[in-house]
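thread: overnight batch results

M.L. [08:02]
morning all. the overnight job finished for the chain we discussed friday. pasting input first so we're all looking at the same thing
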Amino acid sequence: MQVRFDNVTMQFENKKVLDNINFTLPSGELISFLGPSGCGKSTTLYLISGLLNATSGNIYFDDKDVTKLDPVKRQVGLVFQNYALYPHLTVLENIMFPLKMAKMPKAQRIEIGKEMAALTQIHDQLDKYPRQLSGGQQQRVAISRALAKSPSILLMDEPLSNLDARLRIEMREEIRRIQQETGVTTVFVTHDQEEALSIADNVMVLNQGEIQQMTDPVTLYREPSNLFVAKFIGTPIINTFTKNSPPLNPNAWVMNHDWETLGIRSEHFRLGTLADHLVSATVQRVEQVGKDVTIHCECNGETFVVSDIDAELPVGEQIFLTVEPKHLMFFNQKANRVEVV
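M.L. [08:03]
and the structure it wrote out:
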């Protein structure tokens, strides 16, 4: 099922949460909505579900206008952040609940319930109650219940935020597996870029109610369309410089071109010399977490970080660094990406 927004605006009293947005979510893909708190990603999800009604604009499922359609008739499955399981029902009864509401015969409900439990690998817990399950198991039950009525679209609102770090990794891989096995169009809302980039076919980045960029995870990281996306995507955060930045070599070729901000990711620096360097600095601190080494550099009060340097650099040493031109990102005064030739 393809989802399309056509000039959709969502306004609460005097505040515009979404401002005239347009996008198309391809059928059969897992799409992540990513952005900071309050950017409009959950609002967009609830507009798709029908739990919220757009102030203006139209929403389409394939070619059908569903803007005014009742949530029940939209055939969407919704997984909430807090799972929303019924505490007095067993796992199997929770999964079958929407089928019971649809007055499906009991034998058929049980068959589908067990099938969904097998899909999400919760089939060995069918007689237990939610209080007897771990957070990850409860999430599997919630996903099973959402899939039981064969939705055209599966909507997930920050489904992993209540889980610990290791379980989050396990469950996001499970969500990807389930989506690929079912082929259902899935929207996954998160503020965690690692979650979004690791499982999604496409990622839509929002900020202040506007779409900043929508593309595949690799392109999003390598070719951000503006400075917000460049800063929001990637760890460590991208280094940014202006023409007045002390680390920048005033004689470097980039100084002869028109740009406002220069972005360089930490892994793209290479050791250079006084003669050919783009930036210079003093090693301020070396941080090692497992196999990852991050070098914190400073020059006249301005700091930046370097990683993936195949050399031991002692604290206090002055270093000269170069960057291949293809890895330099230039942004204009409006913070949009520009090409410098």
